[in-house]
Amino acid sequence: MAQLGARIPRWLWLKAFGTTAFMTAFFVAYFALLDAPSGPALAMPLTALDAAIPFVPGFFWAYASLWVYVGLPAALIGRLRPLLGFGLWMGGLCLSGLACFWLWPTTVPPAPRVDLAQHPAFALLQGVDAAGNACPSLHVACAVFAAAWLQRILREVDAPALLRAANLAWFAAIAASTLLIKQHVVWDAVAGLALGGAWAWASLHLRIPARAARAARGQPL
């Protein structure tokens, strides 16, 4: 915990400004595509698993926690170059997802009938984030990307297995929430997992020679 805590103040101004600017730019682009798709949106097909998954509005909070979760890797990176690398790779992931939304607009079937008066948080979500820009699920893609970077950071500081398991559990809760509050269907989540996993693997394994040499020597993020 001391090692992780010592990393947070490093480049704090850049982390705070960069994360805020990144999320602002993403939401501007996301809602622009949501409000003005390039063509008719294709309804994603349902599977038997979709029919079996219940509607659990309480998972809204796991869904919303993504915007804290994706900021954790940047907060816990202690060096400038990996910090910039994380932002650039995450930017590439988001741009590729937005390109999918532009080239292939998709939507999900209407959410099941619920009494929104009993679920104000879910009602707010439905009012702001319509059931478009469905496939791939960027919620799942960004969560798996952040989870991979956090696992790498936790290994570097020799974090206990319980903390690493908590990271994976948080990721799993976010991914499951996309289905449990009916913002996405199974195929959206599968596509998001593949997209985020590919970018996560590339970001942690495709290195320029200098960075590869530092990694081989065990130098931390």
From TrEMBL:
- Phosphatidic acid phosphatase type 2/haloperoxidase domain spans which residues? 95-206
Keywords per UniProt: Membrane, Transmembrane, Transmembrane helix
Q: Which organism is it from?
A: Piscinibacter sakaiensis (Ideonella sakaiensis)
Gene3D superfamilies, per database record: Phosphatidic acid phosphatase type 2/haloperoxidase (1.20.144.10)
Residues in a coiled coil are: none
Q: What name does UniProt use for this protein? A: Phosphoesterase
**InterPro entries documented for this protein:** PAP2/HPO
Per the UniProt record, which residue ranges are transmembrane? 12-33, 53-76, 83-104, 130-150, 162-180, 186-204
